[in-house]
Design brief:
This protein has six helices and no strands. By secondary structure, it is mainly α.
Length: about 100
C-alpha cells in the first residue's frame, strides 16, 4: 500500500468536507481506496490531526492490553480500534 503524507490526507478530508461529498466520490477524485478515506476520516475524528500521522515502533504490553480492552468494552471493529489508537494496520490489532 502506498504511504500518503499527512498533508495529502488533510487535503482529501478537506475536499470531502468542503464539497459535501461522500467517501466514494472523494476516493475517485484523489485516486485512492475508499477504505483509506474512511480510515483517515475516522482517525481524524478521534484525536484530530495527530490521528493522521503515521506511528511506528513496538507496542508495550500495557498499551496492547488497553487496545484490546477498549475494543471489547466499546464493541469496536478492527477499523475503529486501529484508527482510534493510531495503529497503522488492522493486522497489528488482530495479531
Amino acid at each position: 500500500m502506498t504511504k500518503y503524507s499527512t498533508d495529502f490526507k488533510q487535503r482529501v478530508l478537506r475536499y470531502r468536507e468542503r464539497n459535501c461529498v461522500g467517501t466514494k466520490t472523494t476516493a475517485i477524485k484523489f485516486e485512492v481506496e475508499q477504505s483509506a478515506v474512511r480510515k483517515w476520516l475516522f482517525a481524524y475524528k478521534q484525536p484530530g490531526i495527530a490521528g493522521l500521522k503515521r506511528q511506528t515502533g513496538q507496542y508495550l504490553v500495557p498499551f496492547k492490553l488497553q487496545v484490546l480492552e477498549t475494543m471489547t468494552e466499546e464493541h469496536w471493529s478492527l477499523r475503529q480500534t486501529y484508527a482510534f489508537f493510531n495503529i497503522p494496520a488492522s493486522s497489528t490489532v488482530s495479531t
